[in-house]
Amino acid sequence: MKSTNIRAFAREKKMNSSSSVKLCVTLWLLILLALLASCIEPSPLYGTWADNKGNTFSFFNDDTFSARVVSYGLAQNYNGNYSVLMNTLTLSCTNVDLRVVTEWDIRGNIMYLDWVSAENDSMSMTLFKISN
Questions:
Q1: 19-62 pLDDT, tens per residue?
Q2: Which CATH number fits domain 47-131: 1.10.10.10, 1.50.40.10, 3.30.70.60, 2.40.128.490?
Q3: By CB neighbour count within 10 A (0-12 exposed, 13-18 middle, 19+ buried), where does 41 fall?
Q4: What is the sign of the dihedral through the CA atoms of 103, 70, 131 and 62?
Q5: Rounded mean pLDDT of the chain?
Q6: Greatest CA span in the chain, whole angstroms?
Q7: CA nearest 72: which of 91, 53, 56?
Q8: What pairs with residue 105 in β-bridges?
Q9: Less Cβ crowding at N or C end of the chain, within 10 Å?
């Protein structure tokens, strides 16, 4: 009788330690996943930017943008795709035949960029983030 109790106790202890190992591994994996997820930072471009001249740019997380650019008192709407390489922003418009390659910089909630229109007019813009 005593040896049966000892075997049952040893079997139960073995199962408990196996469950403890599985629990520890699961907890470590969850912690690692949380750390990795916290390292992913969205692009600072995402959101809507505007200035007091009526220019607005909206950048979306699917690499598309929409813009309203005012030049000589006339507003033109642009839509398309964008890509970023370091501090170079490429805007490829799909509604007009225009591709703008410009340097950009964000300092706090202010973005600086140069826009070159289809007429080859260059405008330096200072845009403020108005929404995410």
A1: 777 888 888 888 877 666 666 667 889 999 999 999 999 999 99
A2: 2.40.128.490
A3: exposed
A4: negative
A5: 86
A6: 99
A7: 53
A8: 112
A9: N
How far from 77 is each of 23, 56, 117, 129, 131, CA to CA, in Å?
Answer: 56, 9, 11, 19, 19
What are the residue ranges spanned by the domains of the chain? 1-40, 47-131
Residues in Cβ contact with 79 at an 8 Å cutoff, skipping those fewer than 6 apart: 64, 65, 66, 67, 93, 94, 95
* Cα 121 to Cα 69: distance, rounded to the nearest angstrom: 12
Task: Give exposure, 57-85, as e/b (b: 16+ Cβ within 10 Å).
Answer: bbbeeeeebebebeeeeeeeebebebeee
Q: Across the strands, what pairs with 69?
A: 76
Whether the Cβ atoms of residue 126 and residue 115 lie closer than 8 Å to each other? no
What pTM did the predictor assign?
Answer: 0.69
Question: What does the CA dihedral 94, 96, 100, 106 come to, rounded to 10 degrees?
Answer: -70
Among all chains, which residue has been given the structure tokens 């960029």? 113
The identity of residue 85, as a single letter, is L
Q: What is the DSSP letter of 96?
A: S
